[in-house]
Amino acid sequence: MKKRLLFLLIVFTAYNISFSQDDPCSAIQLPLSPVGSCTYVVGDNTGATDSDLINPNIDAPSGCEPVSANYNGADVWFYIDLGPTTTSLQIDLTHITTSNFDDGVIALYTGTCSGNLSIVECDDDSGSGFLEANFSVLNMLTPNTRVYVRVWEWGGFDEGTFNICASEVVDPCNNITNIPTCGTTPINSIIASGFGAINDSTCEDVPGDEAIYSFTPTVTGNYTVTQIATFADINYLYNTSCSTTGWTCIDDLSGNNVTSGSFSMIAGTTYYIMLDSENSSGGNVSFTLNCPTPLPGCGDPFYDSGGSTGNYSNNELTTTTFFPDTAGDAVTVTFTDFDLESGWDFLYVYDGPDATYPSLGTFSGTGIPGPFTSSDPTGALTFVFDSDSSFTYSGWEASLSCAPYVPPTICGSTIYDSGGAGGNYGDNEYSITTLTPDIAGTAILATFTAFNLENGWDYLEVFDGPNNTFPSLGNFTGTTIPGPFTSSHPSGSLTFVFDSDSSFTYSGYAVDITCINTCNLIITDTNYPLGSNDCDLDYVELTTNALPPPAITTVFSESFDGATLPTGWTEVNGAASADWIISNTTNAGGTANEAMLDWTTGSHNSTWRLNSPLIDITGYTNLHLNFSQDFDVFGSPTSIGIYVQTSTDNTTWTTQYSNLNPTGDVISTENIDISALDGNNNLYIRFRLSGNTTYLLSWAIDDITITADAPPSPPQITWSPDSDLYTDSALTVPYVAGNYAGTVYAVPNGVQTYTATDQNSCTDMVTVTFNKKIWNGTLGNTDWNTATNWIPNGVPMNTNCITIPDTGGYDPIIDGTTNGVGYNLTIENGATLTQQSNSTLTIVNSIDVETGG
What we know:
Elements: H1 2-19, E1 28-29, E2 32-33, E3 41-44, E4 76-81, E5 89-95, E6 104-111, E7 117-123, E8 133-137, E9 146-153, E10 161-168, E11 176-178, E12 187-191, E13 210-215, E14 221-229, E15 234-239, E16 248-253, E17 258-259, E18 263-265, E19 271-277, E20 283-290, E21 301-303, E22 317-322, E23 329-339, E24 346-350, E25 359-363, E26 372-373, E27 381-386, E28 395-404, E29 414-416, E30 430-435, E31 442-452, E32 459-463, E33 472-476, E34 485-486, E35 494-499, E36 508-517, E37 523-528, E38 539-544, E39 552-558, E40 570-573, E41 578-583, E42 594-599, E43 605-611, E44 615-616, E45 621-633, E46 640-647, E47 654-660, E48 666-673, E49 682-692, E50 696-709, E51 718-720, E52 725-726, E53 743-746, E54 750-757, E55 763-770, E56 772-775, E57 790-791, E58 801-804, E59 813-814, E60 820-827, E61 834-835, E62 841-849
Parallel strand pairs: 1-4, 2-10, 11-13, 56-58, 58-60, 59-61, 60-62
Antiparallel strand pairs: 3-10, 4-9, 5-8, 5-10, 6-7, 6-9, 12-20, 13-19, 14-17, 14-18, 14-20, 15-16, 15-19, 21-28, 22-27, 23-26, 23-28, 24-25, 24-27, 29-36, 30-35, 31-34, 31-36, 32-33, 32-35, 37-38, 38-53, 39-50, 40-43, 41-42, 42-50, 43-49, 44-49, 45-48, 45-50, 46-47, 46-49, 51-54, 52-53, 54-55, ...
């Protein structure tokens, strides 16, 4: 009996120890370890309850990285007393093999235990072990204060013990080593042991410490990194700023004497290169930052990596940008030979200095593309080559030339497919051609005179606007001649997207381009008071039939047309069974390309994320998020879901859309009301897949837009000349040349012709006659022949109808220096006109002196 009683007492005591830290004010201390170490203590959530029931002023955790875990109750608490210089720390939670507590979530709070507790950071699965939590907080905490750590189990059901530690951490951006020059000189790096401060990588999991370097290239080009020797797998990333986010993966290098893929850097821009270890043991790494191979210049040949006689290589992903030698010139690239593995190896061409600029086409097979001439102000063209893992061919040969840019003649021209007037188009073409009229105030009219595409396999799509995000006018194949098509877009533009498959080519198409006048701008002029004439009117109101800009504006858009992720977008691949790519497909229902989470091999239970850059939403209202998707699964998945989330600080995320365990392929276009975010300045979007990839085929995403109500604005009308024009009928706010104004008020000095011009360069003119002159004398300035004493400005002439009102004694005087003239003269009650003896006043028609005048 005594043994049983003792046992019961022991169990009861253990229960009370865990329950004693069930709310913030009964938290137990978590020691703060120094930099480079982490002393674990054992925690226990047995018997824990929901702290929110005791203190409702605790911020609820939601969207805890990397799988957006939410709070599920049954929490326990720790407190940490920060040192006199502590502004950064790291929390790490690991599981105990024998414990049922196997999926811990942690959150950090500031505030008082019985008052408001504000969440700083939370995490679910970023630790080094399976489902273990870890996060760092850099430069966000106040020294000599107490912070609180909340721990709970993800599902809210499992109880048991766990290990947890807290340590000071150093911001790696405080210790940056400059790389003075690229080349073959080894750079030796010592990566310290322990957890690093930045553990969320776009390459692979990186629980180890970091080393950060800065480098400012003197040459724009494609750089590589060679890892000479290493103690572990190292992630290499780069960024244009040193921060905890925004890093782009260069490569995940494993082993010695391995070289990364190429990455582009621009001369004069400072970049930060981070080495981040995939384990926490620490050690030495030696690497080189390899200089780019000098690019061909104007007049030189341009070959693939195999040169003039060899084949290109497998698994290439290279970006090459050509700039003209002389500022103001434009690069032209003319291909003379082209041979890529059809349908598997691709060359992407962009009209500008990188792959975010407009696409000029995607090419594969043997059809010779181009020629291509840059229309970008830089004069640059960018080429992105992507080869797969098998079969290489002879590639391409092209010539580079440079000359001052001459815009092509559009109106009155004929355009053809890539085969020209007499040849066939090529296999595996994907080209975008936008035609904008070169005559102001006109719109493109496209009339097809020939059309012959492989029926059902090769397509030409026409869009009513300056790119392929505008309304489609149709998608055409076979031999039936489409159209004609007339642009209704304000720019007058039409866009043509041609897409051919990997077999059979035909004679293509010919299109006659004419430009038709679409101007119908009309000025309406109205005298005020109504019915007044040029002698007794107050002003002439000028207005046009132009409409205000659309009430809805596009704040942000992304259609992933480039060969690589657009600038500012980042990816996180949680495991090797799936990978974010840019796919030359149209699964989501848009046009190629599109972003895709693509299943690769095997299955893992993890999280994959695609994050947008910062989107400025300052001042916008009625925000909506739109996107197209294809979530392609097979069978009956039970542990997989997709989430579309938003954040205003890139830390706390709100789920706006989700689809869990679908029973089939989900193809949809979503329009999501996110107007709850109105009033914020910053917005981030992320697309997240969490769960097991056993049933995943792919998740394609395209045509992302953020729309909002545009602030009220006038029609896009400018007026010239701007003299004697006002934007208010009180004639107090002068019109400023170049500003938009749908209505203006004219009081010219006599006769003036005004021209209104809209955003399409359409014009209309009106002539205003304003012969009224009103005396406006002031103290010490009563000379009839002073121009500024009259409204409108100017001394009266014999065509003017003159009114002299009561100005409080500042009446006009004709002193004989220059005599007075007018058509009519009215002297109002209380007013006086003084004509000195040596002066004359000539009035052509009539003089009216009112009573008292």
